[in-house]
Write a structure and sequence with these properties.
- The complex is a heterodimer of chains A (about 80) and B (about 140).
- Chain A is about 60% helix and about 0% strand.
- With about 80 residues, chain A is mostly helical.
- In chain A, helix 1 crosses helix 2 and helix 1 crosses helix 4 (about 65-80).
- The longest helix of chain A has 15 residues, at about 5-15.
- Chain A is globular and about 30 Å long.
- Chain B has a single domain (about 1-130), classed as Roll (2,3-Dihydroxybiphenyl 1,2-Dioxygenase, domain 1).
- In chain B, strands 1, 2, 3, 4, 5, 6, 7, 8 and 9 form a nine-stranded mixed sheet that branches.
- Chain B is globular, with a radius of gyration of 15 Å.
- In chain B, about 30% of the residues are buried.
- Classes of the chains: A mainly alpha (about 80), B alpha+beta (about 140).
């Protein structure tokens, strides 16, 4: 996992779910955060798209079950250089 | 062509609130509650007193994994707008071009006789359902 990507996404998630960054790990998932409902999931995806300048396919949105998975997907789409 | 088809509103139990809900809005309810397993929800439609006005849809989760379950736990309520469009494909291309989020690829909806629907989360954070209009010969 690209640490820079993870750090940015962790920051986005912390702001969105109103939590401390230290509370967000790669394993953090909707099961652990009551505020992470279907609408907030889309807010998260939209924010990450805007941050990294990419677009997710519907199938990819469904695959995001954790912050770590989201970060890995971003790295897969943008590569490690960005 | 794009026409507002209905407004979606999430509740705990359609059966428990439908009659009162209809009365409060002077709307007509035909008593049908439709289960859509692909959407993991049950839905029901209410016709406003003035004909031709957009419908009101009540939505309830069909289980713990339903996408509206957590939304309901936060209070439920106004959830989405649904627009009927002549071409769902063209509409989704337009959405992608303007950087809206296409959440699900088109799927057939039980409530609309199998017509395709797709979900879009706009960049202004509005959840929109698009419904393919019936094909005219």
């Amino acid at each position: 996992m690209n640490e820079a990507h993870f750090a940015k996404i962790r920051g986005i998630a912390a702001d969105l779910f109103q939590m401390g960054r230290e509370q967000i790990t790669a394993e953090t998932s909707p099961a652990q955060i009551p505020a992470w409902d279907s609408v907030q999931h889309l807010n998260l995806i939209l924010s990450v798209e805007q941050e990294f300048g990419l677009q997710f396919e519907p199938e990819e949105i469904d695959q995001v079950r954790s912050i770590g998975r989201l970060a890995a997907l971003v790295t897969q789409k943008v590569g490690n250089s960005r | 062509m794009q026409r507002l088809h209905h407004v979606g509103f999430v509740v705990t139990s359609i059966a428990e609130v439908a009659v009162q809900f209809a009365e409060s809005l002077s709307a007509a309810w035909d008593g049908r509650i439709i289960h859509d397993p692909l959407q993991m929800a049950r839905v029901s439609f209410f016709q406003p007193a003035t004909s031709g006005e957009p419908l009101i849809e009540l939505v309830e989760p069909d289980g713990e994994d339903s996408p509206v379950k957590k939304f309901l736990q936060k209070g439920g309520g106004l959830h989405h707008l649904c627009f009927e469009v002549d071409s769902l494909e063209e509409q989704l291309n337009k959405c992608r071009a303007q950087r809206d989020l296409v959440v699900r690829p088109p799927t057939p909806a039980v409530a609309f006789g199998g017509r395709l629907i797709a979900w879009v989360f706009t960049k202004h954070k509005l959840l929109v359902e698009y419904l393919q209009a019936p094909k005219t010969c």
